[in-house]
């Protein structure tokens, strides 16, 4: 499942600083509420992980130890130690431990390059962390948190239902 | 038959318990077990908590200490055994005879299972381990037919556990040196087969190339399902032939043999996959649990979806119903 063009277009127009600020806020929230993620990552928290959603014109470079996220346009791929590419929904599914990375690798929906030890460490750390992205996104919305989280859950449910339908 | 399920993290452990496991097997976060992968496995406090959770649901916990002790560093394995016993493991899964002797002497009441890594696959070997160390169960390698298993169970005085679903190792486990040959590291001594530190994936046009150390293991076309970068499932050129010399990228699935295995005297079915995510663990455990309770005619449909999650997106009954070519 890939993102519909109607959702991609605004991202293409939005300024990078704004996207980066949102991504950093969500990332900081995740690290704050899941300190175990850091512990399980061990030495690999210094790794430069690059996430490349195939259906979004952006790359996300994450360095856990520095607690930073750098966003770049597709044309400029930054240097990284380990890189993972796939549809955005699946990358987010991995972040939440809803998808099995090996299964996505076997089906060729996901591709990985670079330092495989670092990639395995991240995969295992995320899988154990029970991150709930709708909650993290909702927490940005202040008093509207419950509504935003509920809307995000609805979007997630639809995305995975659609994916399951294509599987069966 | 009991369903023995894998867990590489506390989250996966909980999923396995909730999905219907009779027992969950796991290991410490070091080289004492054969899935010593970065970010995987359990700290002591995590194992204590997980065992407590399993107990609350009447599920057993088996701790795998199934690598071979390195001379001069035996203390690491002895300590792991001491800790696993102290934390309340229901069974220890061991491969090294020295470690079996240590556990049998120091903890005579501790239940001891023989790991597949011990390569005990005939009557004499298993009888020796039962008599010498009081082994209560042996995990058989994935190289025997159902008829072989049935013959064996009649000749030994301990329970038999066999692999039922997941990764298909086609070698004499514990004695395979393919990973050592390519990387210097092995599941036997280091707890890693084809270690990630030696694995590289790269794109060559629309082909994905997998490499292990200095060896190209495979080249997957754009629409071809991929597999793990292990030599035993590599594609080779042998004379004029080009293809898989040992085994294709494929996973084990013996759901068609469940009744035959039960009749053969098998006590427990093992699901492989401590390195897999919790989503996989939950799905495979719940599907296999349903399959075990279902009539034979309905089983295939219950596990059909699991194929898409398997290595090479295909499954096979492997040696269970295969003869030597």
Taking the alpha carbons of the first and last residues of chain B, their distance comes to 31 Å
Regarding quaternary structure, what we see is heterodimer
The largest chain-to-chain contact, stated as pair and per-chain residue counts, equals: A-B, 34 and 39 residues
Give the helix proportion of chain A (percent range).
Answer: 40-55%
Shape of chain A: globular
Task: Tell me the name of the CATH class of the largest domain in chain A.
Answer: Alpha Beta
Poorly predicted tracts of residues of chain A: none
Q: CATH superfamily membership of the largest domain in chain B, which one? A: Aldolase class I
Q: What's the alpha carbon Rg of chain B, rounded to whole Å?
A: 19 Å
CATH fold call of the largest domain in chain A: Nonspecific Lipid-transfer Protein, Chain A
Structural features, described:
The complex is a heterodimer of chains A (168) and B (325). Chain A is of the alpha+beta class and 168 residues long. Chain A has 2 domains: 5-131, Nonspecific Lipid-transfer Protein, Chain A (2-Layer Sandwich); 132-168, no CATH class. Chain A is built from 8 helices and 5 strands. Chain A has helices at 5-13, 16-33, 35-41, 88-95, 101-106, 116-129, 133-138, 145-167; strands at 49-53, 58-63, 68-73, 82-86, 111-114. A 5-stranded mixed β-sheet of chain A has the order 3-2-1-4-5. The longest helix of chain A has 23 residues, at 145-167. Chain A is globular. The mean pLDDT of chain A is 88. With 325 residues, chain B is α/β, with parallel strands linked by helices. Chain B folds into 2 domains: 2-168 and 250-321, TIM Barrel; 178-244, no CATH class. Chain B has 10 helices and 15 strands. The longest helix of chain B has 16 residues, at 278-293. Chain B is globular and about 60 Å long. Chain B starts with a strand and ends in a 9-residue tail after the last strand. The mean pLDDT of chain B is 94. The chains are: A alpha+beta (168), B alpha/beta (325). At the A-B interface, helix 5, strand 5 and helix 6 of A face helix 1, strand 8 and helix 9 of B.
């Amino acid at each position: 499942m890939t993102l519909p063009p109607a959702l991609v277009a605004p991202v293409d127009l939005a300024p990078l600083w704004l996207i980066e600020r949102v991504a950093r806020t969500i990332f900081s929230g995740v690290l704050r509420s899941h300190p175990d993620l850091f512990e399980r990552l061990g030495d690999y928290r210094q790794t430069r992980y690059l996430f490349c959603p195939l259906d979004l014109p952006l790359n996300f470079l994450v360095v856990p130890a520095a607690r930073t996220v750098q966003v770049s346009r597709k044309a400029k791929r930054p240097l990284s130690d380990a890189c993972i590419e796939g549809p955005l929904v699946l990358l987010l599914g991995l972040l939440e431990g809803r998808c099995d990375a090996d299964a996505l690798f076997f089906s060729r929906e996901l591709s990985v390059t670079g330092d495989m030890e670092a990639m395995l460490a991240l995969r295992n750390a995320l899988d154990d962390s029970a991150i709930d992205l709708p909650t993290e996104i909702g927490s940005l919305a202040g008093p509207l948190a419950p509504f935003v989280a509920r809307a995000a859950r609805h979007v997630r449910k639809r995305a995975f239902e659609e994916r399951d339908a294509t599987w069966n | 038959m009991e369903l023995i399920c894998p867990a590489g993290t506390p989250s996966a452990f909980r999923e396995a318990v909730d999905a219907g496991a009779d027992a969950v097997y796991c290991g410490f976060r070091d080289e004492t077990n054969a899935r010593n992968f970065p970010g995987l496995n359990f700290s002591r406090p995590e194992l204590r908590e997980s065992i407590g959770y399993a107990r609350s649901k009447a599920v057993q916990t088996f701790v795998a200490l199934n690598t071979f002790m390195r001379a001069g560093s035996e203390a690491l394995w002895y300590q792991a055994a001491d800790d696993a016993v102290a934390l309340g493991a229901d069974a220890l899964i061991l491969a090294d005879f020295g470690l079996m002797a240590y556990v049998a002497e120091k903890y005579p009441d501790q239940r001891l299972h023989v790991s597949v890594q011990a390569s005990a696959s005939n009557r004499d070997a298993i009888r020796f381990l039962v008599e010498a160390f009081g082994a209560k169960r042996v995990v058989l390698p994935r190289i025997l037919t159902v008829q072989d298993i049935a013959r064996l169970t009649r000749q030994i005085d301990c329970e038999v556990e066999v692999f039922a679903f997941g990764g298909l190792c086609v070698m004499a486990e514990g004695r395979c040196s393919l990973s050592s040959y390519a990387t210097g590291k092995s599941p036997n001594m280091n707890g890693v087969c084809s270690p990630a530190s030696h694995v590289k994936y790269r794109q060559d046009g629309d082909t994905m190339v997998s490499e292990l150390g200095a060896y190209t293991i495979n080249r997957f076309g754009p629409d071809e399902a991929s597999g793990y970068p292990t030599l035993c499932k590599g594609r080779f050129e042998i004379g004029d032939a080009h293809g898989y010399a040992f085994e294709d990228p494929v996973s084990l699935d013996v759901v068609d043999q469940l009744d035959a295995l039960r009749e053969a005297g098998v006590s427990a079915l093992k699901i492989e996959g401590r390195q897999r995510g919790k989503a996989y663990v939950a799905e495979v455990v719940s599907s296999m649990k349903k399959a075990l309770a279902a009539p034979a005619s309905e089983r295939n449909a219950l596990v059909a979806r699991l194929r898409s999650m398997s290595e090479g997106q295909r499954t096979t009954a492997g040696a269970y119903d295969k003869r030597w070519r």
